[in-house]
Amino acid sequence: MSEILIEGRSIPLDEDGYLQQLTDWSPVVAEALAAREQLELLPEHWEILELLRDFYTEFQLSPANRPLVKYVAQKLGPDKGNSLHLNRLFKGAPAKLAAKLAGLPKPTNCL
User: Fold this and answer.
1) To which protein family does this belong (predicted)?
2) What is the pTM of this model?
């Protein structure tokens, strides 16, 4: 188990770097998790992270790649809801990395 230190508070992570408690998530935590992945969060990243959090609220699960692409396309249109765009934003592993940064559990059908 590891942790990140945010504003003097220790936040526990699981062995894969996902938050152990969903309630620990905040934009500051997302920035710290992104920094661990050597990723700077831009507005286009935040747009996907917010959608993912909405998806989780609605369905109580983190989507794998195909459902993620479909959901993004439905909400933001085909220019953003495609594998190429999401892979570019999230280093070739959009469902896993975006879920991690959004403070959600690892998608169950992702390796």
Assistant:
1) Belongs to the dsrC/tusE family.
2) 0.92
